[in-house]
Structures are given as C-alpha cells and as structure tokens.
Amino acid sequence: MKDADPPLTPELLLQAYRIGVFPMSEGRNDPEVFWVDPKQRGVFPLDGFHISRSLARTMRRGGFQVSFDMAFKDVIHNCADREETWINGTIVELYDALFQIGHAHSVEVWEGETLIGGVYGVSIGGAYFGESMFSKATDASKLALAYLIDRLRSTGFTLFDTQFLTAHLASLGAIEIPRKEFHKRLALALNTQASFTAGGLKVPEAQDIIQRNAQTS
C-alpha cells in the first residue's frame, strides 16, 4: 500500500524551498500540485538588473505609486488571472499563509487606487524566490522588479531565484545556471542574515533607485 503524501503546509513549503524545489499546478482548476527542481535554474544577479533609459524616464515621470506588502493576496490573484496559469486555490492559500508568518512578500504598483502591476515571492535567509508577476500597464512589471531588486540589495539578500529563465527576464538581466550551481548559491544564501522588512517598508524615491542601479549594474 502506497504511503499518502504529507499534507501541504507552510512549514513543508519552506522545507521544500530550502532544498531547491517549489510547487506548481497544471491549472487553476486542478487541485493537485507537483514539485519542480529544474535542471537549469533562472536567477537574477542583484547587480545585473539594468534600468533602461525608457524605464528611467517612466520612473522619473511618475504618475504611479509603489508599495510593499500592502496587497499580497491581490497580487497573487492578478498573477493567476490569465488564460493558462499554474496557480490554483491551494497555492493561493499556502502563499498567503507564508505571507502571514513573514516568509512571503510582494511589491505593488498602483495608478491611483488601481493595482496595475506587481510581483510576489518567498524569502528565507538571504534568498528570495520570485514566484510570479503581472502587468496591466506599460512597464508596470518592470517597475515592480526595479523596486524589488533595490529592496533586496538594501536589506541583505544575496540570491534572487526566478525559477525559469524567460525571454522577458533575460532581456532585463536574468541568467540561467545549472542545478548544482544553484544549490551552492542557495546554501550560502540560506546562511545569510537578511530581512525584507528591515528598516520598515518605506518606499524609496525613484531617483535614488536609478542612482543606486547605475552604481552597481
């Protein structure tokens, strides 16, 4: 008789991330999840994100607002609001539970009171595991990434896992590394002290982010 799989809990999810695997579903209406450990892993070097001239112009022009951890569950629902998604109800509830205990964080981009972009992920030690992002306006997801990476740099993170490398992420500076190399970087990051909420959740000025990015990229 086959042993039943252990129930999915926030603690099991954190344990999985610590060994380099993460859950996905076949679709929003499939209640099952499966574990993924890619042979080639997407990562974002924290000094590799380049703010283009057009993105810098958007940031300086303003007309948007950014927040941290203000609408976590709304970000997940927007990320899942597409024709094909790996985010089902189980995943939504699990990550919201991680958010409630301080192991998941989001960046939100607003136009007035309308949420137009965002990104969310899991944090353990000095590792941030980016899960998904969405955009409902030009450059909204790029803005979320710019503010996220600046936040990770300033609060002690050393690893930004993107799981897979897409053409969009590659155009922004993400790279692909073998599983073995990822596990080495993960082990180091897990032993690093970092906190997404260090110093509070005050959002920096756009010009300060642009200047810091120019110094490190």
SSE blueprint:
Elements lengths: L9 H9 L3 E3 L9 E3 L3 E4 L9 H9 L3 E4 L3 H9 L8 H12 L3 E8 L2 E11 L2 E9 L4 H15 L4 E5 L3 H5 L3 E4 H12 L15 H11 L1
Parallel strand pairs: 7-8
Antiparallel strand pairs: 1-2, 3-8, 3-9, 4-5, 5-6, 6-7
Helix pairs in contact: 3-4
Task: Give the key terms.
217 residues, 7-stranded mixed β-sheet, 9 strands
What does this structure look like?
By secondary structure, this protein is of the alpha+beta class. The protein is 38% helix and 24% strand. The chain contains 8 helices and 9 strands. A 7-stranded mixed sheet has the order 4-5-6-7-8-3-9, with helices on both faces. Strands 1-2 form a two-stranded antiparallel sheet. Strand 5 and strand 6 form a beta hairpin. Helix 3 packs antiparallel against helix 4 (89-100). The chain is globular, with a radius of gyration of 17 Å. The model has no long low-confidence stretch (mean pLDDT 93).
